[in-house]
Amino acid sequence: MNAMRRWAPRVLVGAALAILALAAALAVLPARWLITLLPADAPLAIVDASGTVWAGTALVALGPPGARTTLPDPIRWQTGWDAGLRALVHHPWLECSQLAIRAGWSGLGLGPCQVRLPAETLATLGAPLNTLKPSGTLRASWPGLRLPYRGGVPSGQLVTLDWTLAGSALSPVRPLGDYRVQMTGDNGAAHVSIATLRGVLQVQGEGSFSPTAAARFSGRAGPAPGTPDTTIMSLQGLLSAIGRRSGDETLFQFGR
Fold first, then answer.
1. pTM for this one?
2. Gyration radius of the chain over CA positions
3. 184: which strand partners?
4. For a tag site, which of 63, 148, 221, 235 has the least CB within 10 Å?
């Protein structure tokens, strides 16, 4: 018993020193360590990073392995502690001054924000977008979100994506139109819909996905009523590439 009393202070001091050494090591953990976190087959990869995991910069590449495209501007982040682990992310595409990401015990918090980027970026995600070679402007926005680690997709409005002045290398028609994609959560699943705001090419569709079920989406595309014959002819190559033709329309489907 006396021996235990003599050793107890030494054990406590040793544990405290080990904790301090671990904290010091984590404080200078290089940002390049983040490169190994993403799976090799992920559609996004960190190709270069500098600084530490707590404050640094990194270049991000989009696309499948072997065909990725590096984005021109690096992201910057700064991590701190504010009632939990919080990261502030900066990038020129963010229309909010900074994107706040907070990690909690039950889920990940995402601050409200908007991101604006060229539609050409979609081509980096691989087929079939690299064949369509889209152009125009994308703007995605979302409210403050709480994404649980378990339990599926949160309920309510998730993301709204607007594609304006849309175009494709498969058609000389410019612009094709303006389109909106909305994603909402309900009963643990995400429901996705696409609608045409205006334009000569009408597109509509809907689908859903969840962590426990395969994604599915189906829709149709075709010329707007009253579209001149010459314009309809100019849309044929694009419509044929999107999916299966049915009269003047094209039917497309992903998943089951």
1. 0.82
2. 24
3. 157, 191
4. 148
In a domain, 232, yes or no: yes
The string of DSSP codes covering 10-45 is HHHHHHHHHHHHHHHHHHT-BGGGGGGTS-TT-SEE
How many domains are there within the chain?
A: 1
Evaluate whether residue 236 is within a structural domain: yes
Domain interval for residue 214: 152-255
Is residue 183 situated within a structural domain? yes
- The reply to whether 245 falls in a domain is yes
Q: Which sign does the torsion angle of CA 224, 226, 230, 231 carry?
A: negative
Strand partners, 38: none
